[in-house]
User: What shape does this take?
Amino acid sequence: MPWDLDNNRPIYLQLMERIQQDIIAGVYSPGSKLPSVRDLALEASVNPNTMQKALSELERSGLVYSQRTSGRFITEDKTMLKKIKRNLASEHIRQFFEKMTLLGYNREEILELIQEALKEE
Amino acid sequence: MKPILECQGLTKKYGNIYALSNLSLTLERGQIVGLLGLNGSGKTTLIKLINGLITSTAGQVLINGMLPGADTKKLVSYLPERSYLNDHMKVEEILSYFSDFYENFNVVHARAMLSDLDIDTHARLRTLSKGTKEKVQLVLVMSRDAELFILDEPIGGVDPAARDYILQTILTNYNENATILLSTHLITDIENMLDRVLFIQKGQLVLNATVDEIRTAKRESVDSLFREVFKC
Assistant: This one.
């Protein structure tokens, strides 16, 4: 099943986001080895060079590191993983507020709606 | 290492009409490149020049630094837009024909792909559907250990399921020293697989950029940029 990618945003960015998401969600655990570039590219149905670029960027951010001959591994730095998780959460919340504001709700009303929704659950 | 393909001031005139006009282009190894343009924009003319099937009016093509000829045909694996295979031959016969003809033809590989696609190698070509014939040809072309693959409309006639298989096949077989140049109108289907796209318009190269460069700069897909640039 190819990865679900948008048509209008750079592919490598979306690959980075997806892998980041998978790391945070625990699909790959801290310290474990990532599949090879070719396998990931096949799984996503994308060009291996694009996958390579996504992984190099993730490496630059420190989320993954490569070991000369044995491949790429997920960082074991729990603080960093936590920070990235927190950033992703903030981003989701920002987007949510943006959409609710577009619907015409103010901050208090949004909070009320969230509390109501939580009660219903 | 020399670039796998270099076109320098390539021009082809038919009577008073320029099919290609002063086209210069360099392709490095290890890329999958989409050749895009409207019907009659010069895509097939360019492809035929690279394969030495026609001669240029001016300028030249270099493949690994060599002019098209016997030596470059070993390096280039070409899927033409129309079949050149004899309809009366069985798939099996064509396999041995290719084995005799090309020293870099990998028959084991070809058989494996044909069996994945459920194609009976004892069938005669003329008994196969149009799509199946296209699959056979693409398998033959992709089974060569070439350095430059040139595919003229490789997925036009096949069903979406086989299209996915073929695209996966291209990705699987693709080696880091080879370059694939493919022309197509089905941009959306292949956009994620491409490194680079070339837009050809009226015999001229109007765009040569990577897919992600386009998406970063224009905030749109190659497909929608194509529709914009070539709007009728």
About this structure: The beta strands of chain B are 5-14, 17-27, 32-36, 58-63, 76-79, 148-152, 179-183, 196-201, 204-210. Chain B touches chain A at residues 30-32, 164, 167-168, 171-172, 174, 188, 191-195, 211-212, 215-216, 219-221, 223-224 (CB under 8 Å).
